[in-house]
């Protein structure tokens, strides 16, 4: 019996209002090798795929951390003050990004703990952070597109791709070629990250579902004293 049939009988049709599983036929088996628990072109189990995605997120966080530090330390606030611009937009963007990256690394840590303890609940914060990351990537891409089309200093601040000097009486800014190359490069990175997040969130969601159904099956086995023949020690 495949994974879909197992879930339809074991999990979905046998939940009471309080979420417990009741009256499950003893012939039902939990098939961890089902194709519905595979991911990344059917090459890995969803639990392995979630671990790989967690490692990928660590690398992404390190990249954005290094980039933010580079932009922050490259910015010279004294020149801004000399030109009459008192607002330190670089520090504000840097602080916001540090908070986001801190929450992201904490969510990845919880994901690794969830995979080691087979806890579906600890996967939820990572899913929430992925949704927030997708919204942020979309916002940055929209802001970057508007900035490139209008040369608006406000939208260039939002993407925080590179520090730049602006005139206090102008709402637009003309950037040099080197800065524009950095902005275009980072926009490409944001676009790739957004596409990956749409893929990653599906895998993490399926891993959460797998861990939840695995937990329900284990409770069923304990309740009915049924040997867990198809349940491996993942």
TrEMBL record:
Signal peptide: none annotated. InterPro entries: DUF7807, LAPTM_transporter, Znf_SWIM. Keywords: Membrane, Metal-binding, Transmembrane, Transmembrane helix, Zinc, Zinc-finger. The chain crosses the membrane at residues 50-73, 93-115, 127-148, 183-205. One of its GO terms (molecular function) is zinc ion binding. Residues 26-66 form the SWIM-type domain. Pfam families: DUF7807 (PF25093). It is a multi-pass membrane protein. GO terms for cellular component: endomembrane system. It is found in: Endomembrane system. Its main location: membrane. This is SWIM-type domain-containing protein. It comes from Caenorhabditis briggsae.
